[in-house]
Inverse folding.
DNA sequence: AGCCATATGTCAACCGGTTGACATACGAAA
DNA sequence: TTTCGTATGTCAACCGGTTGACATATGGCT
C-alpha cells in the first residue's frame, strides 16, 4: 500500500497534524521536527496525494489546453511553450487534441470540468462550446469563443497588410490569397480582410481560395490544383500558413514555375521549425512564445482574482524575409 | 457553488445513493428514475467531480507523458497520437516537456506520482529516474529507463542498415554518420552500430560525428561546419534525424555542393510533416502511430492486470526514397 | 401465503489530506 | 508569579462521490 500521511507521522514519531503542518508550512514547527518529518518521508518513500489535497482545497493547479493537434508545428511549439510556462508557475497541463471537431471539443471541455481544472486555454473554435455564463477561467487564442472570453492573438490585420505589401513591392501583378474556412470566427480572418483592403486600395481585385480544413491535410492539394488551373498567370500567393505555402511552392515547381522569378510566395506563422528548415520561405512570424506567455498570465490572473477582464490582447508580428519573395 | 450529487438528488426527488447508482449503473434502477436524474443533472448543470471519484476508486485514468519537447515534430506527432489513443480509451494525458534535462524529468516524475497517474509513457532518458522497484506502470519509448521497464522502439538497427546501404547503393564512397550524444542509453544507438557494421563489412572506416544536444538547437550547426571542414570530400551523410539532415543539406548547398550529385543525404524519422513539406528528403520512416498504439496498449495491460511484462517491442521501419539519394 | 426480482431509501464508512478549535507543556520575559 | 510565544497533540468536520449493509415496498409467480 502507498504510504499516507499517517505512516509518515508514525515513522517520524509525531502526529498527522504535525506532518501536515510541516508540508503546508503552517503554525509553529521546530527545525528538529521538520527534519524528522522529511527524513521519515524519504525513508518510506512518501508522496503526498494531490487528489485529496485538491479535493479539499478546491484547487487543482491543472490547466486544460485544447489545440487542434500537436502534429502541427505551430501548435506543437505553442503547447510546448504553454506547458513550460505553466510548469514554472506550478501548473500542470492536461492536453487535448480536438482535431477541430466540434463534438470532440465539447467532450474535452466537459472532461476538463470533471477534472476540476483551474482554467482552460483553447486554441480551437467551437460555436456554443461555452455558455456565456460559464464559471471557468478561460482564454482563447486566435479564436472568438464567447463574448465573455479574453482573446489573445497576434496582429493578424497588420500581418495581412505586411504580407500583401511584401508581394506588391516584389512586383507581383496578380496576387492570390489562400486561407482556411471562412466560417470559423477567428481573428485570422483579419489577414484576409487586410489582403482584400490592400488590394482594393490599389484598385485590384482580390482573389481568395479557401482550403476545406484547418487541420494539416492532403485535401488541401485539390484547392492548390484548382488555383493554378484557374489562374495560371498568378505571380504572387499569400498563404495563410507556412505548410500550405511550402506545399504551394512544391506544386508550382512541379508545374515548371520558378520561384521567385515566375511566382512569389509568402507564408504565415514563421515557427522556429520552419525558419530553421525552410529559411528561404518569406513569412510572417507570429510571436508564439509571447502568445503563450500572455495566455498563461491572463489566465492566471483570472484564476487568482476571479476577475474576468474581458478584452483582447493583440501582439506584434514580424516579417521574415526569405528568398521566395524578392 | 458548484452543484454536487446531493443537489441533483434533491432536484430529481431521489436520494444521493440513487443518483450515484444511476451514474455508475449499479444495482436496480428504473428507466423513469434514470430519466429524472439525467434531467435534473442537465437542469442544474451538474458535472461529477472526478477528483472525489478518483480518490475513492484509487484510479485516476490519468497518463503522464514525458517527452523532450512537442516543438520537435517527431514528438509533436507522437504526443498527438498518444493523446488521441488515450482519449478513445478513456485516459487523459498530463503533458511534460522535459527538454532532456535530468532534474526536470525527476521533478515531472514526482509531480505525476503526486497526481496519482495510472501510468507513464516516457520518451526521454534519465539514468536513475526510477528505482528498479518502482510501483508505477511505465513504458519507455526508444530509451532504456530501467531494467523493469518495457521498451517500445522501432527497428533502429535495421533502419541504420537500410540507410547506410541506400547511400552505398547510390554510389557513395565516403559516408559519414552524424548522431546525437552517444552516452544516452537509447536503442537509437543501434543506428550507429548498424552503420559501423555495414561499413566495416565492406572494409571501410566509419566516421561518426556527435551533436551536442538531442534537442532541436542551432548549436548543431557547429558540428556540421566541423564535418565539412574536416571532410570536404564527403559524398554521403546519414543523419540521425530529418531536421539535422535538412540543416546539412542547407549548409552543404551554401558551400556549393550539389545534392544529390556531389553529396547524398539520408535522414531519419520520416514524420508526416517532413514527408509532406520536404518529400525530396530520403529518410527512414519510424512508425509513429504504431509506436504510440503499442505504448498505450502495453501500458494499459500493465495498469489493468498489474502484470509487468518486462520486455521489448520492436516495430518495423520503412525507407522513404526521395531525391537526396539517387 | 410465501417467495423473489425489482426499485429505492437510510446510514455510515471510506478515499487521503486539511484545517480550525482546543488542550497542553515548556521556557523566557515581564 | 504570571504571561506569552513556541511547539505539538487530539479530535472532528470537511472536500464530493462511492459502496456495502440493511430496511422497506410493490407486483408477479408458484
Amino acid at each position: 500500500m502507498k504510504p499516507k500521511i499517517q505512516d509518515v507521522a508514525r515513522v517520524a514519531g509525531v502526529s498527522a497534524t504535525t506532518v501536515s503542518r510541516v508540508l503546508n508550512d503552517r503554525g509553529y514547527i521546530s527545525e528538529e521536527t521538520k527534519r524528522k518529518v522529511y527524513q521519515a518521508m524519504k525513508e518510506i518513500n512518501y508522496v503526498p496525494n494531490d487528489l485529496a489535497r485538491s479535493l479539499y482545497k478546491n484547487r487543482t493547479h491543472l490547466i486544460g489546453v485544447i489545440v487542434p493537434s500537436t502534429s502541427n508545428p505551430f501548435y506543437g511549439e505553442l503547447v510546448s511553450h504553454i506547458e513550460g510556462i505553466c510548469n514554472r508557475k506550478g501548473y500542470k497541463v492536461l492536453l487535448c487534441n480536438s482535431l477541430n471537431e466540434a463534438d470532440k471539443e465539447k467532450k474535452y471541455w466537459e472532461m476538463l470540468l470533471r477534472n476540476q481544472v483551474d482554467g482552460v486555454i483553447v486554441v480551437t473554435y467551437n460555436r456554443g462550446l461555452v455558455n456565456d455564463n460559464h464559471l471557468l477561467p478561460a482564454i482563447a487564442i486566435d479564436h472568438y469563443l464567447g463574448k465573455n472570453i479574453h482573446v489573445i492573438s497576434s496582429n493578424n490585420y497588420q500581418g495581412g497588410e505586411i504580407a500583401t505589401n511584401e508581394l506588391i513591392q516584389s512586383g507581383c501583378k496578380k496576387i492570390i490569397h489562400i486561407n482556411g474556412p471562412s466560417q470559423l470566427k477567428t481573428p485570422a480572418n483579419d489577414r484576409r480582410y487586410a489582403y482584400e483592403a490592400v488590394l482594393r486600395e490599389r484598385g485590384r481585385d482580390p482573389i481568395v481560395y479557401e482550403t476545406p480544413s484547418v487541420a494539416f491535410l492532403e485535401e488541401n492539394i485539390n484547392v492548390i490544383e484548382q488555383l493554378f488551373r484557374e489562374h495560371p498567370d498568378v505571380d504572387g500567393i499569400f498563404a495563410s500558413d507556412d505548410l500550405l505555402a511550402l506545399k504551394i511552392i512544391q506544386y508550382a515547381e512541379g508545374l515548371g514555375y520558378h520561384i521567385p522569378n515566375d511566382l512569389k510566395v509568402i507564408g504565415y506563422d514563421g515557427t522556429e521549425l520552419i525558419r530553421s528548415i525552410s529559411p528561404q520561405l518569406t513569412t510572417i512570424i507570429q510571436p508564439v512564445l509571447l502568445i503563450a506567455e500572455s495566455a498563461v498570465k491572463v489566465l492566471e490572473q483570472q484564476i487568482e482574482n476571479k476577475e474576468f477582464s474581458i478584452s483582447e490582447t493583440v501582439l506584434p508580428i514580424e516579417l521574415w524575409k526569405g528568398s521566395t519573395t524578392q
User: Anything to note?
Assistant: Residues 4-6, 16-17, 19-20, 23-24, 26, 48-57 of chain A lie near DNA strand C (CB under 10 Å from a C1'). The CA atoms of residues 12 and 38 of chain A lie 8 Å apart. The first strand of chain A starts at residue 62 and ends at 67. Chain A is about 45% helix and 15% strand.
